[in-house]
Write a structure and sequence with these properties.
0% of the residues lie in helices and 24% in strands. The protein is built from no helices and five strands.
């Protein structure tokens, strides 16, 4: 699954979190992980093509959310 940013958010420091586990990790409903943004242009001033991917390896309903700024330091999100 691929997440992309709306152009209105390209200028912001956006952090994306999802509770879908990484491959080989047991699902825990309230444990979120930050998904890294991939920027194909490798240019820090051009965020227009940022995206984040998840390889869905479990069936079910998963949640995601975004935060703006430096991200969360909550241990539950690690």
């Amino acid at each position: 699954m691929r997440f992309t940013l709306n152009p209105a958010y390209h200028a912001f420091d956006v952090h994306l979190y999802c509770n879908h586990p990484a491959p080989g990790i047991v699902f825990e409903r309230f444990k979120y992980r930050e998904l890294p943004w991939i920027n194909l242009t490798k240019c820090k001033s051009d965020n227009g093509d940022r995206f984040a991917d998840i390889t869905v390896n479990l069936p079910g309903v998963f949640h995601f959310y975004v935060s703006f700024g430096k991200g969360s330091t909550d241990d539950a999100l690690q």
